[in-house]
Amino acid sequence: MPENIVEGGEPRFAHLSNVHPEWEKVAARYKAVEQKMNELYSLPIKEFRQIPYRPPPIPAASPVLGTDINIREKEIVVRDGAKVGIRIYQPAVLGKEHLLFFNVHGGGWTVGTPETEECQNRLIAARNRAVVVSVDYRKAPEFPFPYALNDSLDALLWCQKNADSLAINPQRIIVGGGSAGANICTVLTHLARDNNVAGIVGQILNIPVTCHPKHFPAEKYEYLSYTQNADAPMVSAARMRQFWNNYLPGEEEDPRASPLLAASLAGLPPTLVQVAGMDPLRDEGLAYAESLRASGVDVTLKIYPGMPHAFYAFPELEPSVRYLEAMVEWIDQLGGRVPGGTGE
Prior knowledge:
Keywords: Hydrolase. It contains 10 helices and 8 strands. By secondary structure, it is an alpha/beta fold. α6 links the parallel β5 and β6 (200-206).
């Protein structure tokens, strides 16, 4: 019996799917746009790409451009000669050897831009006095696995090589992302460990994708969230399968796509995992956190019961505030535990 199932066969995590009162505050507003979103996702991908992207709203209290932070964009060349964009956030008063927060945005490897997680990126740049770099990796289905992973790795290595111009310490890097971006970040830490690439001192995995449904080790971990939250708002189980079909059409059993299947998670950096209770991805996020802990990795786990995938797109909600604060606080705490962690 999986250890995540209590004695008697009852699931441990089913209660996390119960709708949180905070989500009920915006559920009607979300429902009003859900049909339009479904229509957009049904378009051919070329038509979908023509629709202007609208990132989540920025709260009024967010760091101010020009006063608290500065933002610029740049193109870099990756391994196959293609150019990909990066978005760079820096504290307005720039020092030297800042922490680098390397962000890989979510969007099912299919949609999104570096502005998808704009709110957190601005906040981390200002509050943690970090330099944030968010990579605009190439998207599936035109560019399936492993393009997004390779683009992200190449961008991370570019940051290390250009540490002086970015004003970062190349040995003080936290990688972090949401959903599919978190999936890529997990694999970046595996590749860095296995190839002796130093510098990653932590990782933040928000609502992470950690295993293709076909290959999930359900004999070891509870795996009911795809059923319990099949029709959840924001991202349904069907939408997630669509994203997987775009990214990994061959459904390969590859730990570079399904990091929960890695032979070992030992030696990975301290990790913050944040999981939404009303999310099809809930159980794979919890499984990855458990597997990290079993491998001796320092893990901080935050669970947001009754909240759906990417609930932080509604920044006015109290769980969204806690979600953002958790990242800022964790980075601050980690800074005191790594070499040079409190300096700039």
